[in-house]
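protein under study:
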Amino acid sequence: MQNYYNNPCFNYYGNYTDNRFIYANRQNTYTLDRQIGDVNGDGVPDMVYLVGDKNQNNFYQNIRIMVQDGSTLHWYVIPLNPNYSSAYDSWLFLGSFTGFSSRDIMVSLAVGGSGALTYYYVISFNNNNVEYLLGPEQFESIIQTLKIEIKYMDNYKVLVKSNKLNQSYIVDVSDRKEFYEGKVYNKEGKLIKPLDGFLLDIPHLYPIKTDGIASYKLMAQNTIAGTSHADSLGYTVTYWKYDRQSKTWVLDPEYFWVTLG
């Protein structure tokens, strides 16, 4: 993880009272989302805002988190990485990924593009201390550890295999015969030449509970691409929990699934 997350710039705003976040030099600052929950662990609900500066193209920049302590009414500003703090659309989620009584802060920043690129953060504010549990593009390297391969086979089949997990699925792509014939397969359904697909390593992440009394996990959904980014064959689905001792995200359970769509 980058040094930015190990040594965050953390600002304290004391008795800041403008709930609309519209002040002299920030006339273009807007509230993008708001959630209520105890994020510092004192048992009192806090107000958590996601705010950003709007430009002329409805694109928000300099997005940051603002927390109003429910007990003291003091304001805190939690910055995001300046290289990953812009979005067309965004949301906040509050839930415990760490097992503490306080809720962690999850941020989703949708940038757009052909792959619907989205950046994610998971941040702990327990005891009013900032700890970045997840930063943008961190899951790209995590997913790569699964060593997932996509290989076309004869008769309009595609193999999706994780060498690390020793697990595989066969995807039927016969519904794409009209598109593939003459390019990927001959008229007998045999491969014209060996062909690999690929996995889009940057996933879409969603908070999920698989056990009512356990902490939240992250569900990672990665696109399985065939001949191009636009040729989506489905998605791999994995579940990851945060391990406080190692401060890493751990696959749990140690399986992956394939969904079509």
